[in-house]
Specification:
This protein has 423 residues and is an alpha+beta fold. It contains 18 helices and eleven strands. It has two domains: 5-66 and 271-420, no CATH class; 83-256, no CATH class. The protein has helices at residues 5-8, 14-24, 31-73, 88-96, 130-135, 137-140, 160-166, 206-209, 217-223, 243-254, 263-266, 268-306, 308-316, 321-352, 354-365, 372-375, 386-412, 416-420; strands at 76-80, 85-86, 101-116, 119-128, 155-159, 173-184, 187-201, 212-216, 229-230, 232-237, 258-262. Strands 3-4-8-5-7-6 form a six-stranded mixed β-barrel. The protein has a two-stranded antiparallel ribbon with strand order 2-9. It is elongated.
Length: 423
């Protein structure tokens, strides 16, 4: 006498897969259940894809912004507690000897009004030496070849956005007006001076491209009346995440009456806002997957109710409660796993081509979908972090597996006598 299916098969046996997949392929009179399953699959796929895309864009936005900001400003700024920093060459030499420091450069910063013809705007002037600019690859690679050889006296380097705004070209002149200028018997008069533009730069960050002018350090000291002092020393480290640990060593090397300000303090509000927005977006978009998982619950409950007679017959033939539970677990989990795989593939493909998609949609709609003046970047970034992607996939699978447990348990607890009484 042949043994029952429950005795001859193990966990997730072929007949359990066969029944689960057959139940998912609903007949005409059961098409409503099939529609719910389809919408559940689409919802999970959209949720996973959207989460991967949004988290990758937020991560890429933070990485690109951090790269462009710290590429010019440095990871730590050494300042004097008494105002401007004197004896800066000796201090810079000592800082460069600290292990973990890639470069250190004295700078003079000041805010002025830039003018050309009838156009004018407020800008930031940064005084640096040509050798220090050459060491900043993120900037040096964007300059006209050989322009640093002429970076002296009255020659300046202007951001491309600023040059476009003022109508200034390479080889032209730009007028700078500083509010604190010469002291006369009638008071302090603004300092006005015209400089020659030898190059422009475009690094893709409108904070710098539209607001920064680089000036030779001696000329900046003269223009801002700082004497033989600087505003501070910009320090670049081999690992920006280690800046807090290196602060004591940098302060000791800088000497007494100095302080070391990490990039987190200078840009804390900005990057904290990005992190908070990323966390909130993750929670909000996770609701898409949760709603799709609830659809799996309702779809499976309806399927269990519709197949109650089949379940009762299986039980009378010897199928165990565990086998019945696994059949409906496979049915629900198949929807979740398939939707997660589709969403994962769609999200990865979208992130890999996000800039092309953005440009296509911008041309199609005639609108600017990623305004550089608002987001400070010239292109939409997307950098997928394996940990974040794995977390999204794992969350989707866990939610869909949990969603199948209650309907599967109800199917397993079904009483064959009650199910067949009115058949």
């Amino acid at each position: 006498m042949p043994e029952s299916p429950a005795r001859t098969t193990g966990i997730f046996a072929p007949f359990e897969w066969m029944l689960a997949l057959r139940y998912l392929r609903a007949k005409r009179q059961e098409s409503f259940i099939s529609v719910i399953s389809l919408f559940s699959l689409i919802g999970i796929a959209l949720g996973v894809a959207t989460l991967i895309i949004v988290m990758s864009v937020m991560n890429g936005f933070r990485v690109e912004l951090l790269k462009s900001i710290l590429g010019l400003s440095g990871h730590v700024t050494i300042q004097s507690q008494l105002g401007n920093l004197a004896d800066y060459d000796a201090v810079t030499a000592r800082i460069r000897k600290v292990q973990g420091v890639v470069r250190a450069a004295p700078v003079v910063d000041g805010q002025v009004l830039a003018s050309n013809d009838n156009a004018n705007t407020g800008v930031v002037v940064r005084g640096m030496r040509a050798g220090d600019i050459a060491a900043m690859t993120v900037l040096a690679e964007k300059l006209r070849p050989g322009s640093l050889a002429y970076f002296a006296d009255d020659n300046v380097i202007v951001g491309s956005g600023l040059a476009s705004k003022l109508g200034v070209r390479v080889g032209g002149d730009i007028t700078l007006i500083a509010p604190k200028g010469n002291v006369t018997p009638f008071g302090t008069t603004p300092r006005v001076k015209t400089y020659h533009v030898i190059s422009t730069f475009h690094i893709g960050n409108t904070i710098y491209d539209s607001n920064f002018i680089f000036m030779p350090l001696p000329e900046a000291q003269l223009y801002f009346n700082t004497g033989d002092t600087v505003s501070g020393i910009e320090v670049m480290l081999d690992d920006p995440e280690r800046d807090i640990a290196l602060l004591p060593a940098l302060t000791r090397a800088a000497g007494p009456m100095t302080r070391a300000v990490p990039w987190q303090d200078l840009n804390s509000a900005f990057f904290e806002a990005i992190q908070v927005e990323s966390n909130v977006m993750f929670l909000i978009l996770s609701l898409i997957i949760l709603v799709a998982a609830l659809n799996i619950v309702s779809g499976l409950i309806m399927l269990v109710k519709d197949k109650s007679a089949d379940i009762a017959i299986l039980r009378t033939m010897g199928a165990t409660r565990g086998a019945v539970m696994r059949v409906f677990f496979i049915a629900g989990a198949s929807i979740g796993v398939t939707g997660t795989i589709i969403g994962f593939a769609a999200g990865v493909l979208f992130c890999a081509n996000i800039e092309n998609i953005r440009q296509f949609l911008s041309k199609l709609t005639g609108t600017t979908l990623f305004d550089p003046t608002v987001y400070f970047l010239s292109r939409m970034p997307a950098q997928m972090a394996p940990g974040q992607v794995a977390a999204v996939v794992a969350m989707a699978l866990v939610l869909t597996f949990l969603a199948t447990l209650y309907p599967s348990w109800r199917a397993a607890r079904l009483d064959p006598v009650e199910a067949l009484r009115y058949e």
